[in-house]
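Weekly sync, protein design subgroup
Attendees: M.S., D.O., the rotation student, P.L. (late)

Item 1: inverse folding check
M.S. brought a backbone from last month's batch and wanted to see whether the design step gives back something sensible before we order anything. D.O. pointed out we never logged the input encoding, so this time it goes straight into the notes. Structure tokens as presented (483 positions):
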């Protein structure tokens, strides 16, 4: 007798699909089989039973370096994530200049602790890699924060190449994964200033000011820096075909380089920025939306396995004076907050456009929605349907159709970039550790029910790595430059 049985559904993992009941006890998957009885039962016949999604790129209760606050906190962000089929998420804890690392984590603990309805962790953003901050990093790893993001652009966030090498080296030593926002700051600044000076300030110039080459130069440099010290690195929000190809090639060489792309780069394009008035501001993110040929190339990389992770990069700034229009209705593209919402639609979009249209298999969907992220980011008890794992489960109706509208997102936003999209396939029941979070459109959970998940170090088995001769102690006279 189990606490809960999910009966009669078709299960899928990253490798298989099969019919089975799931027996759940104490929040864990206790058995997979048939004919199970439980104190409670969920009838999943005609439905797909999948690992709950894990969203690993979202900005929740986060101040930008210039002071703007995201519209979503851990309650609204986690509720929206749950309605979108997620059982767990890993937003960012952002260190700003002058802040300590542990001070940053304490701040986010105070924001998330009693607020989230689903389980959560953080990636630490490192914007001030002072000696003190670097010395505090090992404590962050001990607290289970085993990944962090650095920026190569944004004046108040970016680090230089030497600082990047320092961070990669400390991360490697502790089994952490570094994530990078790779864009060339100088190219973007130069382009932006010239555009604005010539009076080209509308949102559509945002995409012009962020040339593809700004991304590809930075990805090439980031991969080179990681390979110099043989440290693992994940390039977040890859938006270009050439950038994806560089990730692919580095992986083929054995380097521990990983890639992520996001929903908006597959489903939106830069013509969305060219809408009347300031409407294009709703579609501004960095790197920017590209063109149709790029979308096709990114799909091929998703199908072919270049990207380990598929995320929303949910960065919610409302289309009003609290967000996108904080510098007024005539602000230049340089003054408009970057980012767009999408935490509730990442998985329905991928299911509808990917699985329902036959571009990817259901197993690939599971890998991209949960399993790969769990493995990469050390969420050891999540991301699959197997005995002993947390009962983090999303039950999908593959036939359900919905028309996207902002009111159904459950976030604190006043728009969705996908308004009016018709999607097929929808998550109808989401559980975290065996507890229903959302069922048939109803919220079943209380804020604070979600627990912090301490994550394990990255497992690099199967990544031989790369050795640069000058860093090889057999060649550099035993200089031991990096561990
Ligand atoms: O435009 C974006 N993506 N804003 C969010 C911050 C980031 O760089 O991921
Ligand atoms: Zn970024
Ligand atoms: Zn982001």
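Designed sequence read out in the meeting:
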């Amino acid at each position: 007798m189990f606490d809960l049985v999910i009966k009669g559904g078709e299960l899928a993992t990253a490798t298989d699909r099969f019919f089975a009941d799931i027996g759940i006890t104490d929040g864990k998957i206790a058995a997979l089989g048939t004919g199970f009885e439980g104190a409670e039962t969920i009838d999943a016949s005609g439905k797909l039973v999948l690992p709950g999604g894990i969203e690993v790129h979202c900005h929740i209760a986060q101040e930008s370096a210039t002071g703007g606050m995201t519209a979503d906190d851990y309650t609204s962000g986690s509720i929206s994530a749950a309605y979108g089929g997620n059982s767990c998420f890993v937003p960012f804890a952002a260190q700003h200049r002058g802040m300590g690392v542990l001070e940053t984590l304490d701040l986010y603990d105070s924001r998330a602790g009693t607020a989230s309805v689903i389980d959560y962790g953080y990636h630490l953003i490192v914007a001030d890699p002072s000696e003190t901050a670097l010395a505090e990093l090992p404590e962050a790893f001990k607290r289970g924060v085993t990944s962090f993001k650095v920026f190569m652009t944004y004046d108040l966030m970016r680090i230089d190449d030497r600082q990047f090498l320092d961070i990669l080296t400390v991360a490697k030593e502790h089994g952490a994964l570094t994530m990078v926002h790779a864009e060339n700051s100088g190219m973007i600044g130069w382009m932006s200033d010239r555009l604005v000076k010539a009076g080209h300030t509308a949102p559509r110039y945002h995409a012009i000011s962020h040339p593809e080459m700004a991304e590809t130069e930075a990805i090439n440099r980031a991969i080179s820096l990681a390979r110099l010290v043989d440290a693992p690195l994940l390039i977040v929000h890859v938006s270009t075909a050439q950038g994806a190809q560089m990730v692919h090639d580095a992986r083929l060489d054995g380097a521990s380089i990983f890639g992520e792309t996001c929903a908006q780069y597959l489903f939106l394009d830069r013509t969305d920025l060219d809408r009347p008035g300031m409407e294009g501001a709703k579609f501004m993110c960095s790197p920017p939306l590209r063109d149709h040929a790029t979308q096709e190339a990114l799909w091929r990389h998703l199908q072919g396995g270049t990207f380990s992770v598929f995320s929303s990069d949910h960065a919610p700034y409302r289309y009003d004076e609290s967000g996108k229009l904080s510098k007024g209705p005539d602000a230049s593209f340089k003054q408009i907050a970057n980012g767009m919402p999408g935490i509730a639609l990442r998985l329905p979009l991928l299911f509808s456009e990917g699985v329902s249209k036959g571009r990817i298999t259901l197993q690939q969907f599971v890998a991209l929605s949960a399993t790969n992220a769990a493995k990469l980011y050390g969420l050891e008890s999540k991301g699959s349907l197997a005995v002993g794992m947390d009962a983090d489960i999303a039950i999908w109706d593959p036939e359900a159709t919905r028309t996207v509208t902002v009111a159904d997102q459950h976030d604190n936003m006043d728009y969705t970039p996908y308004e009016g999209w018709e999607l097929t396939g929808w998550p109808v029941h989401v559980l975290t550790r065996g507890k229903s979070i959302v069922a048939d459109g109803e919220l079943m959970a209380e804020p604070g029910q979600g627990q912090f998940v301490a994550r394990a170090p990255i497992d690099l088995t199967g990544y031989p790595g790369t050795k640069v001769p000058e860093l090889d102690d057999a060649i550099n006279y035993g200089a031991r430059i990096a561990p």
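Discussion: The chain has a mean pLDDT of 97. DSSP finds twelve helices and 19 strands in the chain.
Action: P.L. to compare against the previous round before Friday.
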